[in-house]
Amino acid sequence: MGKIERETNSLSYFERNKYDEIAESNEFQVLDKKKRAFLITSISIMMIYFFTLPIMAGYFKPLMMKEVPVFVNFGYLFATSQFIVAWICAAIYTKKSNQFDDMISEIYERYIGGVQNDKL
Fold it and tell me: For residue 83, with 0-12 CB atoms within 10 Å meaning exposed, 13-18 middle and 19 or more buried, which class applies?
């Protein structure tokens, strides 16, 4: 039996009903849709951007070898930009996840009363 199953089984009948009530609430459904839309969109954009480098390196070698004004070729510049984009994506994800955490805390407080991080 996994940790999640044990924790779920240790919840009282009242707590299980409250969690079911939260999961079925309109507020939680809206939050879940927003979260899924953000994750699917951001993951798709990141994957397209990051897989562009190996595709371009394989099929567009003349473009990747083209010199740019900073004395490197486009391939190196594009590869370096991936590090910058990764940090930007991490910052955006962190900010957005904090917003989702605040929203779920409000929902939890409304239904259960008080934030209890050990049970979330």
Answer: exposed
